[in-house]
Amino acid sequence: MAAPVSALLRGATGCQRLTRLRPSVTRVSENVPRVSCTRTYAAAKAAPKQKKEEKEKVVKEVRRVDDKERHKPYGLTAWAPVDDVYMVRYYPKQTYDPGTAVDMLKSVQKLDHTPPDQAVCIDLRLDMKLEKKKKVDPFVSTVHLPHPFKTDINKVVVFTEDADQAELALEHGAAHAGGVELVQKILDDEIEGDFFVAVPDIIPKLLPLKNKLRKKFPKSKRGTVGVNIPKMLNLFKAGHEYLVENECYVITQVATLDMPKEKILANVQTIIQDICSHKPANFGPFITRMIMCTRTSEALHIKYEDLLPKSPESKES
Predict the structure, then answer these.
(1) What's the average model confidence in pLDDT over 244-271?
(2) Is the pLDDT of residue 9 over 70?
(3) Is the pLDDT of residue 63 over 50?
(4) Surface-to-core class of residue 158, CB atoms within 10 Å of its CB (0-12 exposed, 13-18 middle, 19+ buried)
(5) What is the spatial distance between Cα 234 and Cα 79, in angstroms, rounded to a whole number?
(6) What is the DSSP letter of 131?
(7) Phi and psi (nearest 5°) for 34?
């Protein structure tokens, strides 16, 4: 007899329920050999990254325009202004003869009612280049001016362990003279000086003063180390010191404005000739620009060629 339809439906649903509850498991026979993946060849090397070709550095040549034969300077309006009032940037900087510049500084001082004894300073730019990559080392120098403008004598301290030399230094105007006993007094600011000179034997004992004195520390290049104490005192008591700053600039006082024009120019020429002695003449001119001014005036560009030391050839001619 055929089973009722309701019974068949119950059996089908029960089978579906069993199949949902029982997870399906697949077994792998233990007798089946396992295959292990082994690599029998070397790994391929990564391709090296191609280096970017270095671009050749192109040195741009500085274009120098020769304006001497032109009716006007390149990029400017004219060689010289016509009126007294003009835009400075449209004309080349005017250069003056040293004597004319001094006269202009004196007239400006009278118009501005500034102190007549103010300092006259010069600003020099130097060409320190030598052969190939060599340069003139920045230097410090002391020179005797033909017309000193300082009223006070420089204080000079002499280092020597010889009692006779110390007595000789004091006789020639040294402010202080002695040996190692002066070191601690200088460190304690009990002794001050404008210049410090020493004999060669005592230099190793003065090393504690290097950080204190800095540029004033005795050095043979500056002429502050030697055996002729009277000669060194004669130089540094009334000498004028200048130095090269920022690798190629000399900025120093040369006189006071109330001095006569001839004396001011004589001091300027003495300093310029001493500066030029630090570079051989066969490497070209040492000074490339000169400016003169006072504390309250504008800077005047100077024609310095006549102040330079003359070569032997020009003297003969």
Answers:
(1) 95
(2) no
(3) yes
(4) buried
(5) 49
(6) S
(7) -85, 135
